[in-house]
Amino acid sequence: MSAAEQDLIQALSDEEIGEIEKEITHLNGRKSAAIDALKIVQKHRRYVSDESLQAVANLLGMSFAELDGIATFYNLIFRKPVGEKVILLCDSVSCWIMGGVDIREKIKSKLQIEMGETTPDDKYTLLPMSCLGDCDHAPAMIVGEDVYRDLTNERIDEIFDE
User: CB 3.0 to 4.6 Å from 140: which of 39, 48, 92, 134, for a disulfide?
Assistant: First the structure.
């Protein structure tokens, strides 16, 4: 490994490198850890910057383009900064039929942001999600790691006033 590649790997923290190396031990080859490594970096930084992606690629023995292809394929790997909590708002037909448009407008009004934006306090980023697989409890959303179902305007107030 060249000195330049070593410098880029150092763009990752020792903790990130340790977690990635631990994942590699459970898999068949370094490249197999690509998604897990990206998730680890995102857990620590909230998104995967170009510099971090290059560092992970070097650590795993991959090219930037190869890893970027993986990162951009998965819509839950964020390549741009996001808030502390990402709101994944389902925009499937089921949610739409069950009032999802009103829920979307309520959230946008409550947080004073548009879809794809982050609140000024960096707390929330609002993103659409094609389907959360919770159609029998539509409309639905995920905030951080918490799933909210059967949403109403009143429930949105409760969730974001907590």
Answer: 134
